[in-house]
Design brief:
The complex is a heterotrimer. By secondary structure, chain A is α/β, with parallel strands linked by helices. Chain A has 36 helices and 34 strands. In chain A, α5 packs across α24. The longest helix of chain A has 19 residues. Chain A is globular. Chain A starts with 15 loop residues before the first helix and ends with a strand. In chain B, 69% of the residues lie in helices and 3% in strands. In chain B, α4 runs antiparallel to α6, α6 crosses α8 and α8 packs antiparallel against α9. Chain B starts with a helix and ends in a 5-residue tail after the last helix. The N terminus and C terminus of chain B are likely disordered. Chain C is an alpha+beta fold. Helix content of chain C is 26%, strand content 14%. Chain C contains 7 helices and 6 strands; from the N terminus they run βαββαββαααβαα. In chain C, the strands form 3 sheets. In chain C, strands 1-6 form a two-stranded antiparallel ribbon. The two termini of chain C are 23 Å apart. The chains are: A alpha/beta, B mainly alpha, C alpha+beta. At the A-C interface, α1, α2, α3, α10 and α35 of A face α1, β4, α5, β6 and α6 of C.
């Protein structure tokens, strides 16, 4: 009665037509169900019900005026790789539409993806190049910026060497941008080139690659739908990768799968688990070994899988024997019964997958953690088939791609190491002389008892990691294993608040002779420390304002089209790198095979160059044309298998997930699931990579009786060279051109030309024809003898809350890694001696929020996101809070055990964290130890929300393999402010 | 009452929840299945009367997911308040009409003497009319909120009604402040004259001169006027407090507080409107000579003697002091 | 049979990712401080925690419409509860009556001048002509007129939030619960639509 239509609205009876006429112009049922969210299948029940869809208006225009164009790009936040559909009108991005066809996100987004338009709209972006002159921000021209920066770089190079300029890249680059910066560093002459993978999954890459060959997620988000048991450990994808939960939860529902979350916090992900296991932070290895204890004890392991495909499991058994349920409970806090239940499910209700994120990797034992995870998967036979695998959720949108493309101190693009053969390989691709490249590197004098290095040796020595740049800037020059300290930072798209020990970083910044920040936002770098001069801000556009490809966590490569022209005076990465190379005098060499128009390099050409050199990792088949065709025909791909069932890309996996072997012409479909022996290699099958030799201590390292479907070799085999092909008589299948290329590369020793440096692609092509995989058919390693702990052992965190356990489980001895000393053992001993755990009794861990990403500058500048999280906070257990007189929402000081560090944040009192554990998100910056830094930002570029950075109170601790920092376990004290 | 009961229930439920939470933390269960133990709407509604959680935006009221209390409020607002209002206002009008028909205008029994006595000075009249004027506008615009939709809107159409109501709302909100000022002034100005005494009991016992015969003696204000005074002061304070809460919504109040404030405001308003109708009646057509007190401020001596004999005496004894002022009847 | 659109948030799917919130802000350029949609987490941090996305539920017998002193609400043929900002006087009554906290008010001035109420339109605009500039300025985009469903539901990361014909989304929910064997219920349905989804 009170609800009635008013007469004046009577003409707007939009849906009345629908009720009477079901046939005209409505959405069909499939689209409706897609929109409503029902998975395909089980539609019968819906059968005859009326559809809820509505009839499009005759003139379906969102806003009146000019026509609207739809452009596709990829969300620039996390690694899930959601397609963004932009509505563009008159060159302005006016709206977003769901990308229904994307098999990855099926129209959906998280808060960040749904608000991404504001990144381009945002008025808090850096608008033009700026520099600090006498402590004041000054607008300058691009020309002036390049001239001044270039001159200073050259001067530093003369004085302190090429290694004194640290080049920090970005996981937000496109693949082409990442590749270009790695190439830039090579041409400049340093290996100190890094990016965010260092602080998120460097330990994953090291651990996984050392186990079975490649450092990446083995399956995909979509494939989790096939799993019967899912363990998520050290990850909170509900906040960090929300769209991935779509696949996880649907799998959980349709398969009635077990979803087990093992985490110190009862996270948003844990809220949807069928089993939640709370552990003490920093005890991942005891938990895994505790699970394996039950598995081995009960004979639940996959014996046949281990026999055929795993090397060194016996050593693991010995280590696992120590982890009785009692010891596990003593160290981790998890009761034996729960461990047993989880172990039984994981081992028996298969396929099982293990998902992990930075909770596992950002540790002093990160690499060992990852190795333990892999070992659990191997022991239960859960690798290399549907629904199984190490589903490692990477962080940033292109952290996988940027890692692949070599933004790494120890690799050239596509995991070619720093050895001469690799340098020569890329020299051939780039068409530059090896000798010239070598001439670019420093000679390092003998220092502090260490021998000198000539240019070649320095060229083959890994650089300094991004986690240690400030140590490399501040330590005595003798301690830093290169010609001189780090004197300049050239930073592209990388926050300054994501690295631990910020009070030290602030001091390090003051030491630098040059600081260049190339980013859409000024970032923390612009306000941290007390710099007055020699600081430059270069406005870079987002990836939404340029074109290029990006590799999602599942290795699918997606091409993004420029949505709008870069706003203000911002420019894309390619242009800026070209201009800098031009100023430094090597642009012609660097862009020899790349089309450059108006100083703007062509992204497609960059990808083609990657294709020409990316044999090792199968980055060769993903030509720009194929990727664009995938983007244009997303709807053809199946949501579970990711394979196109129709259309021009029929048979391909979505985004040609690497490895996509051979040249694009042979149309390899890409590899949805790594090491999958159930498929022919031409269909994306594979085996564990024979990367570590053929034999060790009398035991074979090659697979035994296991091979990929259709293989002509029915057993393990080593990797292929031209010589091996000849022995098998398969060289006759090579074309004359291919042979000529191989012989040209091989020179005096053509038989030594391997599948990875054969630019003709002939070896790969022939191997695929024969159903074998050119990288060999080896065993995965449960014993990685080249790592500090060949079989992972538990080591207490540097700042352990349980000092009594340190004697039994100490950290590794001090050492030197990656040009820097690592004194973790000294710090750990001092912490025990001084009883730091008494004065700082609360374990501090850190992690993500759904609204923000990374260092958070972009997202905290986005009004739609910033409104949702307006204050930095610390989660604290009610018991700890009441003992300290802390109330929910009140201000507190969180005090760190190093440098007298402190942060002023709000308290969030919650049982999410256990007693004695506190959690802080890591996206905040702009306050430093209680002081608001807002006035220090260039005017109008300060993010809407500022707050203390958790890394102000995080502490020392580095993984010995990758120098990963420790962000997940340290100690703190909390007081009401 | 309802609210108090709810608060109590809430406190108990919270205590229960907190208690169980602590128990859980102390003896960690060997197995937690968050899916199986998911929270249910029914259970929360039963325990807490509303469903409240945590939200990241800094707006406490947004954390309330479902508040069924709105349903009760809607009922109070749409049904009870209208009935109360209708009964109070129409009832009072009816009573007055009947009374008028029965008694007509009550004359000054001794006729007008022609001699006038100053009853209310300029300031008193100003204060009265400030308060009264505001009250009338507030009453009309307030009644509009509750009854306009059914009474006025059908007559003038929805758009015109919305336009008028918008201005009515502004008037209501802004005139509330001078009204409150008038209220304060009235209180301090007349409170001493309005302290109830035994005379008032007698006055009421004698029917206040309205029923029956004879006028019981009264000082400046008789029992009836004191009743009006205290109605205005107490009702006005109630309206002011609840009005201020409504005008600054959620300034430290919850939604239940707001609902309560609105209902109290509404009920007190209609009752006060009814009381004021009687006041207006008696001050105008109900009684000869009464209106003079608030118009010119001077009343006929006979009227004064009849209704406020004691006051007249007092004025006379005081006369020499304030003599000049009281003695100019012919102006 | 006429269409009767509804919202349904499947709390067993909702992960509080807030996509619905920002999608709404983005689509309609909703200003800071106005939250047409929000996500509330119950039992936060405890086993059994659930998050629910909430906005105007477009109730049957809408309380907001009942208490509105100027009768600015109206219900469309497909049961979307809309309102006219031209008529709204910003009294705030709809907020007191609404079980779901849907109405929002911009703070436009001093006391009392609470601005015109704003709320979820089910992406169906307002009384002005469909897809007109005036409609967009007052109420945001009119997706329904374009044959699309509300953006919040369309973009929901886990497809927890369903929008569309009430019978169909109830059917989808029922099927989900049957398949997975659990469900914490269609939150708010009893209050909004005086019905529950029996499984």
């Amino acid at each position: 009665m009170l609800i009635k239509r008013k007469s004046r609205e009577a003409s707007h009876s939009r849906l009345q037509a629908l009720a009477s006429d079901h046939s005209s112009g409505m959405l069909d049922r499939r689209s409706f169900l897609m929109r409503s969210g029902l998975a395909v299948g089980g539609l019968a029940a819906v059968g005859a019900t009326t559809l809820g869809a509505v009839k499009p208006a005759q003139a379906a225009m969102a806003k009146p005026g000019a026509p609207i164009e739809l452009r596709r790009n990829i969300c620039t936040h996390c690694s899930v790789g959601c397609t963004v559909v932009a509505e563009v009108q008159n060159g302005v991005w006016i709206g977003q539409e769901p990308a229904w066809d994307s098999p990855i996100n099926r129209g959906t987004h998280c808060a960040k993806g749904a608000a991404i338009r504001e990144l381009v709209h945002g008025d808090r972006r850096l608008k033009y190049p700026m520099k600090l002159a006498n402590g004041q921000w000054q607008r300058i021209s691009w020309d002036q910026a390049f001239n001044e920066i270039g001159d200073k770089m050259v001067a530093l190079r003369e004085k302190s060497g090429a290694d004194s300029v640290y080049i920090l890249g970005s996981a937000k680059f496109s693949n082409e941008g990442a590749y270009l910066l790695r190439k830039f560093a090579a041409f400049w002459g340093t290996n100190s080139v890094d990016h965010q993978a260092r602080i998120c999954h460097s330990t994953t890459v090291a651990g996984v690659a050392n186990t079975w060959g490649y450092g990446a997620m083995t399956n995909s988000y979509n494939d989790i739908r096939n799993s019967k048991t899912v363990i998520i450990m050290g990850g909170n994808p509900a906040e960090a990768h929300p769209v991935s939960l779509q696949h996880v939860l649907v799998g959980k529902e349709l398969k009635r799968a077990n979803l087990i979350v093992i985490d110190p916090r009862l996270t948003r992900t844990a809220a949807h688990a069928t089993e939640y296991v709370r552990i003490r932070p920093g005890t991942d290895i005891p938990v895994i070994w505790g699970l394996l204890w039950h598995i081995f004890q009960n004979g639940w392991e996959d014996k046949e899988f281990i026999r055929q495909r795993v090397y060194g499991m016996d050593l693991v058994r010995k280590e696992v024997e120590k982890w009785t349920p009692e010891e596990v409970e003593r160290v981790t806090g998890v009761p034996g019964a729960q461990m047993k239940a989880v172990a039984e499910k994981f081992a028996k209700e298969k396929p099982s997958t293990l998902v992990w994120c930075m909770g596992a990797t950002q540790k002093t034992v990160g690499t060992a953690n990852v190795r333990a995870f892999c070992t659990l998967l191997l022991a239960t036979g859960n690798v290399g088939s549907e629904g199984t695998g190490a589903n490692i959720f990477r962080g940033h949108c292109n952290v996988q791609g940027a890692t692949d493309l070599g933004l790494d101190i120890a690799n050239l693009p596509l995991y070619y190491g720093l050895v001469e053969g690799a340098w020569r390989h890329w020299g051939r691709v780039w068409e530059v002389e090896y000798d010239w490249l070598q001439s670019r590197f420093d000679e390092v004098p003998a220092k502090a008892g260490r021998p000198a290095r000539n240019r070649k040796q320095n060229m083959e020595t890994p650089g300094i990691t991004s986690t240690r740049w400030f140590d490399a800037a501040m330590m005595p020059a003798d301690e830093v294993d290169q010609r001189d300290n780090v004197k300049a930072m050239l930073i592209f798209g990388h926050g300054g608040n994501t690295v631990t020990r910020m009070p030290e970083a602030a001091k390090g910044l003051a030491k630098l002779d040059l600081l260049v920040v190339a980013d859409p936002h000024p970032t923390t770098w612009a306000v941290l420390g007390e710099r007055k001069e020699n600081t430059y801000l270069l406005p870079i556009c987002t990836q939404l304002e340029t074109s290029g490809s990006r590799t999602a966590s599942n290795r699918s490569i997606q091409w993004g089209d420029k949505i709008v022209e870069p706003i203000f005076e911002s420019k894309d990465d390619y242009w800026v790198m070209y201009r800098l190379a031009e100023k430094l005098g090597f642009a012609d060499r660097m862009f020899k095979n790349i089309k450059v128009e108006n100083k703007q390099p062509l992204a497609e050409d960059l990808l083609r160059e990657i294709n020409r050199g990316g044999w090792s990792t199968g980055y060769t088949g993903q030509s720009p044309e194929r990727l664009k065709s995938h983007m244009a025909n997303q709807g053809d791909f199946d949501i579970v298998t990711l394979r196109a069932t129709k259309g021009p890309n029929q048979g391909d996996y979505y985004g040609l997930p690497w490895p996509c072997w051979g040249k694009p012409e042979i149309r390899h479909p890409g590899t949805h699931i790594l090491y999958n022996t159930n498929l022919h290699v031409k269909d994306g099958g594979g085996t564990f990579r024979a990367r570590f030799g053929v034999e060790r201590e009398g035991q074979t390292l090659l697979a035994e009786g296991s091979f990929s479907a259709g293989s002509e070799i029915k057993d393990g085999y080593p990797e292929f060279t031209y010589g091996v092909l000849k022995k098998l008589g398969w060289d006759s299948l090579l074309t004359a051109d291919e042979k000529a290329t191989i012989e040209r590369i091989g020179g005096a020793n053509p038989d030594g030309v391997s599948w990875a440096i054969d630019l003709s692609g002939g070896i790969q092509r022939v191997c695929l024809e024969k159903g074998v995989i050119h990288y060999g058919n080896g065993k995965a390693r449960a014993n990685a003898w080249n790592l500090p702990d060949p079989v992972p052992v538990h080591r207490e965190p540097i700042y352990s809350p349980r000092p009594e356990l340190v004697a039994k489980y100490p950290t590794l001895p001090n050492g030197r890694q990656l040009r820097m000393p690592n004194i973790g053992a000294t710090v750990q001993k001092a912490a025990v001696d001084k009883n730091v755990a008494r004065d700082f009794p609360i374990i501090l861990t850190s992690g993500r929020l759904v609204e923000y990403e990374g260092g958070g500058e972009e997202t905290r500048s986005n009004k739609w996101l910033a409104e949702l999280q307006q204050d930095m906070f610390v989660e604290i257990h009610p018991a700890d809070a009441s003992a300290r007189g802390i109330v929910d929402g009140g201000w507190v000081w969180v005090l760190g055990p190093e440098s007298g560090s402190k942060t002023r944040v709000k308290a969030l009192v919650t049982e999410r964290v256990g007693r004695g554990v506190a959690f802080m998100p890591f996206h905040f910056a702009g306050w430093f130890q209680g002081v608001d830094q807002r006035p220090k930002y260039p005017q109008g570029t300060d993010p809407i929300v500022l707050g203390e950075s958790v890394n102000t109170v995080t502490t020392y601790g580095y993984d010995p393999v990758t120098n990963m920092q420790e962000t997940k376990v340290t100690l703190c004290q909390i007081r009401a402010a | 009452m309802v609210k108090q009961a709810r608060r109590l229930a809430l406190a108990i439920a919270v205590a229960l929840l907190v208690g169980s939470g602590i128990a859980a933390a102390q003896q960690q269960p060997t197995s937690v299945n968050p899916t199986a133990s998911s929270v249910k709407e029914e259970q929360l509604l039963q325990q807490l009367q509303n469903v409240q959680g945590r939200i990241t935006i800094p707006d406490a009221k947004a954390a309330v997911l479902i508040q069924p209390g709105g349903r009760d409020w809607r009922d109070l607002q749409q049904v009870s308040l209208r009935w109360i209002g209708a009964i109070a206002i129409l009832g009072m009008l009816g009573v007055l009409i009947l009374f008028y028909m029965a008694r007509g205008t009550i004359p000054i029994s001794g006729k007008r003497s022609g001699r006038r006595v100053l009853r209310f000075g300029y300031f008193e009249r100003f204060t009265h009319w400030l308060t009264a004027g505001c009250f009338i506008v507030l009453a009309v615009t307030g009644v509009n909120v509750t009854f306009g939709k059914v009474l006025l809107m059908p007559l003038i159409g929805a758009d015109a009604f919305a336009g008028w109501s918008q201005w009515a709302k502004y008037a209501h909100n802004y005139l509330a402040f001078p009204f409150m000022l008038g209220l304060i002034l009235t209180f301090f100005m007349w409170v001493l004259d309005n302290i109830p005494t035994k005379l008032d009991v007698d006055w009421f016992r004698a029917g206040g001169g309205l029923v029956g015969k004879g006028h019981p003696p009264a000082r400046k204000f008789n029992g009836g006027q004191k009743l009006i005074f205290w109605s205005v002061i107490l009702g006005g304070v109630a309206l002011s407090v609840t009005g201020l809460l409504l005008i600054f919504p959620f300034a430290g109040t919850t939604i239940a507080d707001m609902q309560l404030a609105q209902i109290v405001h509404g009920i007190v308003s209609v009752v006060l409107v009814a009381v004021m109708l009687a006041h207006i009646y008696i001050g105008t057509i109900g009684m000869e000579g009464a209106f003079d007190a608030m118009s010119s401020g001077e009343v006929d001596e006979n009227w004064a003697r009849e209704h406020h004999a004691l006051w007249l005496e007092e004025e006379r004894t005081k006369a020499p002091a304030g003599g000049q002022r009281a003695a100019g009847p012919a102006e | 049979m006429a269409t009767r659109v509804k919202f349904l948030c499947d709390a067993d799917r909702c992960i509080e990712c807030n996509a619905c919130v920002t999608a709404c802000k983005n689509e309609h350029e909703v200003p800071w401080g106005i939250n047409r949609r929000r996500v509330v987490t119950l039992n936060d941090g405890k086993p059994g925690e659930r998050s629910i996305s909430m906005a105007c539920m477009h109730c049957t017998d809408a309380p907001c419409a009942a208490v509105c002193p100027v009768d600015c609400f109206y219900t469309t043929a497909d049961a979307v509860v809309l309102h006219s900002k031209e008529r709204c006087i910003g009294c705030g009554y709809c907020f007191y009556a609404c079980p779901f906290g849907a109405p929002q008010y911009p703070r436009v001035g001093n006391f009392g001048s609470r601005g015109k109420m704003d709320k979820c339109t089910y992406c169906a605009g307002g009384p002005e002509a469909d897809a007109s500039q005036a409609e967009y300025a007052n109420y945001g985009a009119n997706r329904l007129a374009e044959g699309k469903l509300p953006i919040c539901a369309e973009m929901c990361s886990t497809k927890a939030l369903l929008a569309g014909d009430g019978q169909i989304i109830a059917e989808i929910y029922r099927e989900r619960v049957l398949k997975r064997g659990y469900g914490s219920g269609a939150w708010g349905w009893k209050t909004a639509y005086k019905e529950t989804i029996a499984v």
